[in-house]
Amino acid sequence: MMEEVKERTPPAETYLLWSIINLLCCCFPLGVVAVIYSIRVENAVSVGDMSRAVEASQTAKILNIVGVVTGALALMLIFVMYAVVITRLNQ
After folding, report:
1. Is a pLDDT exceeding 80 seen at residue 2?
2. d(C-alpha 12, C-alpha 3), whole Å
3. CB of 22 closer than 8 Å to CB of 31
4. Average pLDDT of the segment spanning 20-38
5. Confidence check: pLDDT of 4 > 90
6. For this UniProt entry, which segments traverse the membrane (predicted)?
7. pLDDT band (50, 70, 90) for residue 42
8. What gap in Å lies between CA 83 and CA 42, rounded to an integer?
9. At what angle do helices 50-89 and 28-47 cross, to 10 degrees?
10. How much is the mean pLDDT over the chain?
11. Are 24 and 46 in contact (CB under 8 A)?
């Protein structure tokens, strides 16, 4: 009976690819922490600790969302600052 429940329960999402892309493209510090939590998901699933895997998966997801938003805001800020500098130089 317990084996059937384990088979039906999907493993927790690792978000490892998203974490690596976040690490390389968006926000390096949050990307590093997200990669660490993504690896924790894999480790927890391998030992069968699904509650810890789900918790680490949720943390990795939140870190990736915050990293993408932070990276996007930083990029927009850079573009605005660049536009302001170019405009002032052309006057």
Report:
1. no
2. 17
3. yes
4. 94
5. no
6. 15-41, 62-85
7. very high
8. 44
9. 170
10. 89
11. no
Q: Which residue shows structure tokens 């938003």?
A: 69
- Separation CA 64–CA 33 (nearest Å): 9
User: Exposure pattern of 12-33 as b/e (b: 16+ CB <10 Å)?
Assistant: bebbbebbeebbeebbeebbeb
The mean pLDDT value for 28-57 works out to: 94
Give DSSP secondary structure letters for 59-70: HHHHHHHHHHHH
Rg (the chain; Cα; Å): 19
What is the amino acid identity at position 71? G
- Cβ atoms of 53 and 12 within 8 Å: the answer is yes
Tokens standing for 70? 């932070």
Distance CA 88, CA 7 (A): 63
pLDDT (average), residues 40-56: 93
